[in-house]
Predict the 3D structure of the following.
Amino acid sequence: MATRQSTAGFEQVDATSQGDNLAAYLDLMTELPAVRAYRRRMVELLAAGTEDPGRGNVSGDQRWLDLGCGTGSETARLASGELPGTVIGADASLHMLARARRRPLPSPEGEKHPSVGAADARRLPFADGAFDGCRAERILQHLHDPGDAVAELARVCRPGGRVVVSEPDWGTMAVDVEDRDLARRVLGAMSERVPCGWIGRRLPALFRAAGLEIVAVEAHALSVEGYSSADGFFGIASGALRALEADLLSAVDTARWLAALEQREKESPLVASLTGFTVCGRRPVAS
């Protein structure tokens, strides 16, 4: 059974009592095969940067940044051998960082935990070129000024290194309900409720604005069946309630939407999907 999303957003995680629910949601997302697949692809794109022309073979202790590490699940996986060298997790939420610091890492030397610390994505506390590669996943959607965060990722990445970001595009949400006009209004309102709901399609432009050379732009579909799973992963009901609270959706449309979801589920398992984008950019090497 999927864990229902809270009506509080991640941008407010430390200011609400919903931290545990939001942390559970982050861990829930790792159950989606599509999430595991694009995460593997992000690793491939990052690691390939060590062989980029002009970069040469990188030896010694490589350093990687996992920005927006959340509960530390991916930081721990990467630090357990997915990437060579040292993986540093960074997140703005103290609640999430507390969880990440308790996450065990397999180690022959005894119990170890991911290396994580607090950081504002728009003002990273790292020197220029501090990392061989940087990754960020599903965090730019929560920022009103995501371009600043992409510029910071480019700054702290070494020349020749890569920045890889994966974000959903909430404007691509599709839910199988009969009333198309209602679906357009509700899904549009839900997208507007996210601070940067169309971030997926904007990534290439933001990378170029930050001075990064585009290496790859890839789309991936996230899809689920069943009302409970669709609400747990995508917030098809709770997102509508959040839009109602923000005066982006009328009470009448919200009620009709919830009834339409329930009706569809009675007839057949409801289908919902969302398109995400993974973009890889390379920091140019000075000539």
